[in-house]
Each structure stands twice: as structure tokens, then as C-alpha cells.
Write a structure and sequence with these properties.
The complex is a heterodimer of chains A (about 110) and B (about 120).
Chain A: E1 9-13, E2 18-23, E3 32-38, E4 45-50, E5 55-56, E6 61-64, E7 70-75, E8 84-91, E9 105-110
Parallel strand pairs in A: 1-9
Antiparallel strand pairs in A: 2-7, 3-4, 3-8, 5-6, 6-7, 8-9
Chain B: E1 4-7, E2 10-13, E3 18-25, E4 31-37, E5 44-50, E6 53-57, E7 64-70, E8 73-79, E9 87-94, E10 106-107, E11 111-115
Classes of the chains: A mainly beta (about 110), B mainly beta (about 120).
Chain lengths: ~110, ~120
């Protein structure tokens, strides 16, 4: 699976948009970009995933660049409960079940 | 609430004890997973089950013994653990685990294990 690079930590003001970047410059054509988050001492929570097109759901939006070498997860109106570690994961078809979690980005939403 | 429950939520055990962790999913999924998350480390996949059959063992020591009696239940039997086995043990489930790329894993809240 392609390696991902994320900033170690980010801060965001409550009510503002949180934009979390992820670089995956070695991504190949059949690899999807997944985002999960983990609130302290809880299980990871699926957020969103995409292949080429931008995606939006009730939690977030995912913007993937045209060359697919990077993506941005957008939380449009961050709340204190969005404080968590956010993981960007790239999965290939052949990886089957494997979700390889890296270090992620610690997002802190401040009042 | 993701539809995946784990019990107990917290467990303290001695190195000579035998205990079991339980996971149950109410999502109609057919694949279940055990992960380990040690302090300051990324999640590590331990075991994968598809339709009750173990399909992946990620070089896990034999003191960890999984059991999957049906697609809804997954156990992790623990015996003669070491203090370094103290960690958060997470269960997850998904609809399929045979390279169906869009299948999403749903995690339980985890069991916080402390081995003394």
C-alpha cells in the first residue's frame, strides 16, 4: 500500500472549517483513500473514502487532487467533539482486509 | 454507537491468569478482526476471520488465541500474558474481507487491558 504523510498535529477554532492534508505521492491507480478518526481511548471511526472524485457525506468532505498524490479532509464546522487523531489510509485491492494505520494527525479543536 | 460491542471495557490480569475478550457485531457483517493498540503506537492487525474461518494471523504469539463461533461473535482468549501485552484491544467488523475494496471496517470501543 502507498505510504501516507500527515502533519503530526493541527489546531482549529470551534465553528471553523478544519482542513486536514494528506500526501500519498506513490499512490497507484487502484488505490482508494480512506479516512478514519480515533477519539482518545475509543475505537477508530470511519469517516469517508474516495478514489478519484471528491466525496461528501454527513461527516466530512474529501478533496482528492487531480493527480491523486494528495488529498484533504474537510470538517466544515468543527466542534470540540471533533478533537481526535485523524488517519489517512491508502488501500490497494490486493491488501484485502488490511488497514495500515500510521501516526495520523492530532486535531485539537479549541473553544 | 457503531453496532460493535466489546466486553469487558477494562481488564486487569496477572501473568498467570486466563481471561477472554468478547466482541459482538450487530451489523450483519461476515468478517471480523482483532487489532492491538499499544501506547504511542499505531494500530496493529492481529487476526482476521471471514465467515468464521481464520484468514490472517499477523505473527501473533500463541498466548493470544482467537475464536470465532459464528459471524457475529469473536473472542480473544488470553493466557500467560506479559506486561508488554498491556494495550487497547480493538475488534472490528466489515461486510467482506476478500479484496472488496470498498468495504469499510467498523470498530468497537475496545478493551483496555493491563497485565501485572
Amino acid at each position: 500500500d502507498a505510504k501516507t504523510t500527515q502533519p503530526t498535529s493541527m489546531d482549529c477554532a470551534e465553528g471553523r472549517a478544519a482542513n486536514l492534508p494528506c500526501n500519498h505521492s506513490t499512490i497507484s491507480g487502484n488505490e482508494y483513500v480512506y479516512w478514519y478518526r480515533q477519539i482518545h481511548s475509543q475505537g477508530p471511526q470511519y469517516i469517508i473514502h474516495g478514489l478519484k472524485n471528491n466525496e461528501t457525506n454527513e461527516m466530512a468532505s474529501l478533496i482528492i487532487t487531480e493527480d491523486r498524490k494528495s488529498s484533504t479532509l474537510i470538517l466544515p464546522h468543527a466542534t470540540l467533539r471533533d478533537t481526535a487523531v485523524y488517519y489517512c489510509i491508502v488501500r490497494a485491492e490486493t491488501s484485502g482486509s488490511r488497514l495500515t494505520f500510521g501516526e495520523g494527525t492530532q486535531l485539537t479543536v479549541n473553544p | 454507537e457503531t453496532g460493535v460491542t466489546q466486553t469487558p471495557r477494562h481488564l486487569v490480569m496477572g501473568m498467570t491468569n486466563k481471561k477472554s475478550l468478547k466482541c459482538e457485531q450487530h451489523l450483519g457483517h461476515n468478517a471480523m478482526y482483532w487489532y492491538k493498540q499499544s501506547a504511542k503506537k499505531p494500530l496493529e492487525l492481529m487476526f482476521v476471520y471471514n465467515f468464521k474461518e481464520q484468514t490472517e494471523n499477523n505473527s501473533v504469539p500463541s498466548r493470544f488465541s482467537p475464536e470465532c463461533p459464528n459471524s457475529s461473535h469473536l473472542f480473544l482468549h488470553l493466557h500467560t500474558l506479559q506486561p508488554e501485552d498491556s494495550a487497547l484491544y480493538l475488534c472490528a467488523s466489515s461486510l467482506a474481507s476478500w479484496g472488496t475494496i470498498q468495504e469499510t471496517q467498523y470498530f468497537g470501543p475496545g478493551t483496555r487491558l493491563l497485565v501485572l
